[in-house]
Amino acid sequence: MSIRNFFTSRTEPALLLAAVVFAGGAWLMPAWLAFLLTLALAKALVVLGVVIQMRAGLVSFGQALFFCIGGYGVGLAAQYLGIGDAFALLALGTVAAILLALACGWLLTRYREIFYAMLTLALSMILYGVLVKSSALGSTDGFNVVPPSFLGWVPEGDARKRTMYLLTVLVAAVAAIGFHRFMISSLGRVTEAVRENEIRVDFLGISPQAVLFVNYVVAAGVSALGGGLTALASGHIDPDMAIWTTSGEFVFIAILGGTGHVAAPFIGAIVFSVIRTFAIQEAPHFWQMTLGVVLLALILFLPKGLWSLVARRSKKEAAA
Amino acid sequence: MTAILETRGLTRTFGAVVAANDLNVSIGQGEIVGVIGSNGAGKTTFINMVTGYLPPSSGDILFDGQSVIGRQPREITRLGMARSFQVAQLFPKLTVLENALVSLVAAEGPRPSIFRPLDTPERRERADAIFAEFGVTRYRDALVSTVPQGARKLVDIAMALVSRPRMLLLDEPTSGVSSEEKFALMDTVIAVVRQHGVTVLFVEHDMEIVARYVTRLMAFYSGEIIADGPPRSVLGDARVQELVVGHHLDINAVLGAAA
Fold it and tell me: How confident is the model over A107-144, as pLDDT tens digits?
């Protein structure tokens, strides 16, 4: 198979090129920026989960549930199972989230609109409540995550930050290409058909609930990856990973980036991190207000998110 | 003639209202059956029950000798019974091509692939053949929401036929279609279903359409079938004219116009 045949569209080489540029920057940028981008890309993975649900017409106000499960999965496996390898820890956190999603998905995918949103929120808040009351898991303080090894190598200081950054870029690139393929896959496109007209999908011979169920489990898996990477990068986990404001942040980023393309959550997450960092630095008491104003402006002027600027330009170029 | 669809004592009530009362229908393979009736006569209730959208209060529905009571619409579709809708049920924010591709994927099996793209050259080729058959090729890349009503109806029916069903139920196929377009639309649909040997049952208000295309006609009134037979005898029935048509019908004029 030639390289040209391997890629399904121009999007994939573009995503790969972006990943190479980001990875190359690891040696050029300061460690703090690498850390900031690590957290932003990890968040983008969670937002990918939110976006694929939005493409199916469902808004999850509880995606922090899987973000938190991914994080705690990594932290608990490192602390109690003595696993140190970052790849194994991420895999464990993701599997834990997928198992939970398999259980919750059958209930949630029976509901639509506000009921779905509220149930996802309720489940994440149940986890938050359990964690807050669990003194063995550090209660509201959470606990520190043991620094991971990377295939046997244990970097220290700034090298650890840069290695985590590179790992996150790698995971993000694989996830972005995988999700691009998912979005154009038969199942991915049928989720859009479910959003448009669920009854017709049923009369064509496909169970809309089954389609949404698979979509939900996939979303849970990628969100847990984001949580795991966040836990490894920050070295700490606490119940706030599951609180509703964290889920709200993911929805915010999804709206900021848009749902039209797999790259949108990554753009949204990076822009969000930049805005928040500068807002906190310049106006530490009003940073939430700054974010609120940005969201308001976005809804008024770019209701389809930042990606619509790119899409508009591509359309103009195609028309020219 | 072997019955493809049979209903036995099919009844549906909504509180005190009896929408369908003890309906016993037998439709043979290859028949083109029309259903007429005033609003609230029970026509759509009948179609909704047969296709699994609405559970009957009592009675049985046999499709190809097999009871379909309690089955989901998707299961009944997979058995070989497809339907179209009074208001075309499409995916408005997808293009006509994408609508067809989704129905082609559905026709391939109940579990769409997570690995294979929706848009493949083979599916495009099949979709193009369907568009040519139904005369909607020029709308191929347009969003469904921007397509004229008549073309939308054709796409709706084409999507139902993609799975190669043995029976097709059409709920008012010409409603919302201009009088200039309705015969062209029905000519296209009937030519396709005849070519594929599909049994058809369609609900219709337009007597000219009914008289022109059906081989058998059933008249519904207040949840019951008050006449069932060749179009000439049903449309000529005094009770049908009084309760269903609502006025005296010059049967020769109608059949003459339809011919």
Answer: 999 999 999 999 999 999 999 999 999 988 888 898 98
Q: Which two tokens stand for residue B103?
A: 């129905």
The parent domain of residue A85 ranges over 3-242
Which CATH code, of 3.30.160.20, 3.20.20.70, 3.30.1240.10, 3.40.50.300, is assigned to B1-80+166-259? 3.40.50.300
Test B77 with A203 for CB contact under 8 angstroms. yes
Total count of domains within chain A: 1
Rounded Cα gap, residues B150 and B139, in angstroms: 12
Assigned token pair, B141: 């890349």
Contact (CB<8Å) A205/B77: yes
Partner B contacted by A27 (CB < 8 A):
no
Phi/psi at A36 (nearest 5 deg)? -60, -45
Of B73, B102, B160, the CB nearest to A190: B102
- Please count the residues of chain B: 259
Provide the shortest C-alpha distance from residue A198 to chain B (in Å): 9
pLDDT 10s digits, B64-115: 989 999 999 999 999 999 998 888 899 999 999 999 999 999 999 899 999 9
Please state the domain extents for chain B: 1-80+166-259, 86-164
**Which segments of chain B have a pLDDT < 70?**
1, 248-249, 253-259
ipTM score of complex: 0.90
- H/E run at residue A65: helix A64-80
pTM: 0.90
Asked, for residue A138, whether it belongs to a domain, the answer is yes
Q: Cβ contacts (< 8 Å) between B116 and chain A: which residues?
A: 185-186
